[in-house]
Amino acid sequence: MLDELAGRCLLRPVPGGAPAPARYDLPGCLVPLLREDLAARVKPAEAGLARARMLERTVRQLRACRAETERDEPAARAWLAELPRGLRFGSRRAAREWLDSRLPVLRAAVRLAVDDGGLDTQARRLLSALARAVMAHRGEEASAAELYPLHQLALEVAERRGLVPEQAAAHLNLADLDAAAGRTEDALARYRSALAAAREAEEPFLTARSLESLGRVYQESGDWERAADWYGRALGLRLARGDAAEEARLYGRMATVHEHTGDRGETLRNLRAAAAAARRAGDRSLESGIRTRLAGTFDLLGDADAAAAQRAAARRLRGKAEQ
């Protein structure tokens, strides 16, 4: 039927030799006519339901596309096995080829769903599924150009719906991409927007993440004083929540900043605090790494005995971690 419609110039085959089944574009001149016909034949609620179902099917197919990258995990294999045959892919390569060939259509579907205004739930699910699929198949760095407009659309929906935590998350995602691309000022502005939204939503995790990200940008810019300030604020939230592993990581970041300023006393204090937090967290590998850093600091301070003791402790912890 599609071939016949194309033969009558009611559809236009997409050039480029797409894999079977063939794909077609609808000539723009037919769009208003078809919309008029749809309005005459189908009730608005029924048309909206059909669009929602189509978007949900696309979400499931995108999840299947991502799951192909996780076939080594039993849960992913079991989930894929329960899908209808029409939503499954034969291999990771087939899923990647489908994603690459359908990206223009998927982008258009997301844009239309966001513009509709009445399909925001499906639009949010589609945005998330598409972003995850692209990340899974392309990796973080290669996905940046594709992900940026998706996060912008997610922010648009979150602002329209007044979803403040999702606004914070979208700002964080955009800021991470700006920071990775070297757009430092844009990243700082985005992280501050994320921080404001996270505080408004009273989301401690997103607030701490925004504070730490601001510290990281200043650290990478060599602004050690501001980096220490933002890390300190993030650390205060982590301490209030009693998250020992996160405390250890942030104490380690603070130590790195003080190493660059030459304040070995503060470096030592923060590393000791990191080791104590790692001990509470029960992460022997993490504590071993911190004690190795402590040994290096003691070397710089000229305390060979303390350095040797820390290296011995690090070796014991590594041995226990490997058991």
TrEMBL record:
Pfam families: TPR_12 (PF13424). Keywords: TPR repeat. InterPro entries: TPR-like_helical_dom_sf, TPR_rpt. TPR repeats lie at residues 208-241. PANTHER family: RAPSYN-RELATED (PTHR10098), TETRATRICOPEPTIDE REPEAT PROTEIN 28 (PTHR10098:SF108). This is Tetratricopeptide repeat protein. It comes from Streptomyces lycii.
